[in-house]
Amino acid sequence: MSPVIEISGLRKAFRSLRQGRRVAVDGFDMRVEAGQVHGFLGPNGSGKTTTLRALLGLVRADAGEMTVLGARAPAELPRVAGRVGAIVESPQFFGNFTGYRTLRLLALAGGVPTDRVDRALELVGLRDRGDERVRGYSLGMRQRLAVASALLKDPELLILDEPANGLDPAGIREMRDLTRSLAETGVTVLVSSHILAEIQLICDHVTIISAGRRVAAGRVDDVLAGFDRHEFRVRVAEPERAAELLRAAGLPVGAYPDHLVVGGSGDPELIARTLGEQGLWVHELTPLRPDLESVFLELTGGPAHPAVPRQVDDAQAGDRVIELEATGAEDSGRVDA
């Protein structure tokens, strides 16, 4: 089965009188398979929004090949546009229109049955607020309305750029539940977000971009496993003595005010036995597993903390992704004239 989204060698540069030529995306690759909830991560200015805009034909790429649902982008996008729902950046709505009227007009313009409007409002939690004018909506409510507009088509592919922007914790949880429920019905979801904990909760695959280039891709668990140092947090009554014993056993030990970090061993029994044989009983022995935030910061570290070159297997595509040296490319999120 061909991928729902495939990007190969995407390159895009912008020119402006003020900043000159800027490379926003530099040889970027991405592959999204059917049925995935795929996270698209990168720091501000990394090229995320430019990539999505190029994929949807909103900006013209300088080089590279892209397909969406098997159609070449942007030339063949009209053929599959009715099967794709997308929000990129923050869509603008007429403030004097109600939420219901806004979606009804969008449905009519897109040739979508208007009976889907109520369902879309219900899915995003705006069913009871649909008769209110959009100018009275909060930022989070406008974001929900934007997601509702993307759902009008009953899409096979849903592309969401920062869908949790402006949402309170309850709204973020509702958006998470919505994304999961859509995935369970077979919708492929590509979601870009800076809320890394949410991405880890809802996504099964991830692509990380830095300075316009892909630095990691694959199943979330596989990407995290590539950064597991097999360290443990250890708490004992005599930490200084415990550190000496563990170092004598050949284990690297880091000392902190209230605990030790012991590395070099995937076997917690070795740590417990080394200390227990000397009468030191362990109060805590917790594996320190990497989360998506720590991996993201390591891969996309700034000049003061350069990212460590690593290799991460892309289990789905079978290739290897190698972090490349930063180029200083930026993604401003807008097209320069």
Structure description:
- The protein is α/β, with parallel strands linked by helices and 337 residues long.
- The chain folds into two domains: 5-93 and 155-170 and 177-225 and 292-322, P-loop containing nucleotide triphosphate hydrolases (Rossmann fold); 231-288, UreE, C-terminal domain (Alpha-Beta Plaits, 2-Layer Sandwich).
- Helices cover 30% and strands 27% of the residues.
- It has eleven helices and 16 strands.
- The protein has helices at 48-55, 77-80, 99-109, 116-123, 139-151, 169-184, 196-202, 220-225, 239-248, 268-276, 292-299; strands spanning 5-16, 20-32, 37-41, 63-68, 71-73, 84-87, 157-161, 188-192, 205-210, 213-219, 231-236, 253-255, 260-262, 282-288, 311-313, 320-322.
- The strands form four sheets. Strands 6-7-8-3-9-10 form a six-stranded mixed beta sheet, with helices on both faces.
- A hairpin with a 6-residue loop joins strand 15 (311-313) and strand 16.
- Helix 3 packs across helix 4 (116-123).
Chart the SSEs and their pairings.
Blueprint: E1 5-16, E2 20-32, E3 37-41, H1 48-55, E4 63-68, E5 71-73, H2 77-80, E6 84-87, H3 99-109, H4 116-123, H5 139-151, E7 157-161, H6 169-184, E8 188-192, H7 196-202, E9 205-210, E10 213-219, H8 220-225, E11 231-236, H9 239-248, E12 253-255, E13 260-262, H10 268-276, E14 282-288, H11 292-299, E15 311-313, E16 320-322
Helix pairs in contact: 3-4, 4-5
